[in-house]
TrEMBL record:
Protein name, UniProt field: Cytochrome b561 bacterial/Ni-hydrogenase domain-containing protein
Keyword terms, alphabetized: Cell membrane, Membrane, Transmembrane, Transmembrane helix
Regions that span the bilayer: 45-62, 100-120, 140-160
Pfam families xref list: Ni_hydr_CYTB (PF01292)
GO biological process assignments: respiratory electron transport chain
Cellular localisation: Cell membrane
An MF annotation (GO) of this entry: heme binding
PANTHER family reported in the protein's UniProt record: BLL0597 PROTEIN, NI/FE-HYDROGENASE 1 B-TYPE CYTOCHROME SUBUNIT
GO CC list: plasma membrane
Entry superkingdom: Bacteria
Protein's membrane topology: Multi-pass membrane protein
Domain Cytochrome b561 bacterial/Ni-hydrogenase: 12-173
Amino acid sequence: MTDAPDAVPVKVWDPFVRLYHWSQAALIAAAWITADEWKWLHERIGYAVMALVALRLLWGIVGSRHARFADFVRGPRAVLRYLGDLLHGRERRYLGHNPAGGAMIVALLAVIAATALTGWLQTTDAFFGSETMENIHESLATLILVLVGFHVGGVALESLRHHENLTRSMITGRKRPLGAGPGGE
């Protein structure tokens, strides 16, 4: 099937999901920039990150269809099967997140939350000045960057494989419908 220019894009990502995505990206970048020079600002950014994660967790339960965890969180077997299909060039196109993308969201949320938590713990009496807690916090922050690298790589690969600009869809909230485009989905 050829690309169908007359296919009307469908709404996939609601405004909260899009605002969360770009706000979280901006806050994480700001946290990296402020980590050494502006501790007071770094801490406030950490609280904002923590609040966003809490809101995203709530939205993952009560939000729109493709925002809900039930729509995209799959078990390890489904993720591995999808990755195998991807390696063999026969992966299915999903309107929402594919199984690997869902796993990445869970991983990012968990690591971002753990990073924020370990940052906050350093402000408590129990862990103030703890070099061990600081090392854990910094390691988790580095892991965020590694995951973001895989996330961006996955978005680029998926965009190329399915002839679809996924970055644009996270801005507009819209994607072409299933069945309307290369590969016949």
